[in-house]
């Protein structure tokens, strides 16, 4: 894959002294889905706004498809579609006319066939003649996506795209996103639904306090930072962990019917085989065992908490 977005040492500071971004550098590959995660105020929206030409950076450079966003902004902007967090639509405008208007803003010739294709893909075709004020919040957000796709962008930014959307509509939207990726569109999203990022993204970027903590392939991130939990179901109830196992990091369930053992996936040895042998040696019969991988949310929270600890030190 070739690089479609190049970000080099990007920074943004406001007159108040607030540093929204500090030394952010990353490359985004053509056709990938990358999720930007971070707490509120971390700098995600500022980063997107700079790339889209809505905010002027203090320092650094950004190129989209080889076009500098400041010196060649028109060519760069034509490659980008943006779905913002806020729903801002003309309330009395018909859905289809709103999408047509956005296409015209980019200097594209009318193409009602393509507009129909976009509206159908977002389940908006039956609402094409409805005024946007008549739509539900979820449907309005779909209109925003249709407007962002109106000029056939190569890069699509989705800033909290499923906020306020019910579960069924959210899943349908992600089917559209997956189809866009198959069509070669590069997608950068921010989301608070971390399970979506875990399911959809090829790579994960974590931003906190204006700094890019890391950018890694999702599977690599989960393997490096994710732990696993072994749940050991017991054949009989325990009232306490035997003294001989007190230093093994076991946690007894409140009902005494199971033990939890957390271990690091990066460790050369997990210690599970020895643990099961020690349980047997202590007269504890195991009924069943199961493992669970840490979720992306748990990995994300551990990264942010680690950075908070470093700052406090």
UniProtKB/TrEMBL annotation:
GO terms for molecular function: ATP binding; ATP hydrolysis activity. The keyword ATP-binding applies. Transmembrane segments: none annotated. The keyword Nucleotide-binding applies. Keywords: ATP-binding, Nucleotide-binding, Transport. Residues 5-234 form the ABC transporter domain. It comes from the Bacteria. Signal peptide: none annotated. SUPFAM superfamilies: P-loop containing nucleoside triphosphate hydrolases (SSF52540). InterPro entries: AAA+_ATPase (IPR003593), ABC_transporter-like_ATP-bd (IPR003439), ABC_transporter-like_CS (IPR017871), ABC_transporter_ATP-binding (IPR050763), P-loop_NTPase (IPR027417). It holds the Pfam family ABC_tran. This is ABC-2 type transport system ATP-binding protein.
């Amino acid at each position: 894959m070739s690089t479609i977005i190049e970000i080099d040492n990007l920074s943004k500071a406001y007159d108040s002294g607030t540093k929204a971004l500090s030394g952010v550098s990353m490359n985004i590959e053509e056709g990938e889905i990358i999720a930007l995660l971070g707490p509120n105020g971390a700098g995600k929206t500022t980063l997107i706004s700079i790339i889209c030409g809505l905010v002027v950076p203090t320092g650094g450079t950004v190129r989209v498809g080889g076009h500098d966003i400041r010196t060649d902004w028109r060519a760069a902007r034509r490659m980008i579609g943006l779905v913002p967090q806020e729903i801002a639509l003309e309330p009395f405008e018909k859905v289809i006319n709103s999408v047509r208007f956005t296409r015209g803003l980019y200097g594209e010739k009318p193409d009602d066939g393509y507009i129909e294709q976009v509206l159908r893909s977002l389940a908006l075709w039956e609402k094409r003649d409805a005024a946007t004020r008549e739509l539900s919040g979820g449907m309005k957000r779909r209109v925003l996506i249709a407007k962002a796709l109106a000029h056939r962008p190569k890069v699509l930014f989705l800033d909290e795209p499923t906020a306020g959307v019910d579960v069924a509509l959210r899943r349908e939207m992600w089917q559209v996103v997956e189809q866009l990726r198959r069509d070669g569109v590069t997608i950068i999203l921010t989301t608070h639904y971390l399970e979506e990022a875990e399911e959809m993204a090829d790579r994960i970027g974590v931003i906190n306090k204006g700094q890019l903590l890391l950018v890694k392939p999702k599977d690599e991130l989960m393997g490096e930072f994710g732990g696993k939990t072994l749940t050991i179901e017991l054949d009989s109830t325990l009232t306490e962990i035997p003294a001989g196992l007190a230093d093994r990091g076991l946690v007894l369930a409140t009902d005494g019917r199971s033990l939890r053992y957390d271990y690091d996936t990066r460790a050369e040895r997990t210690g599970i085989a020895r643990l099961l042998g020690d349980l047997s040696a202590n007269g504890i019969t195991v009924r069943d065992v199961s493992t669970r991988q840490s979720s992306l949310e748990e990995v994300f929270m551990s990264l942010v908490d680690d950075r908070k600890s470093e700052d406090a030190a």
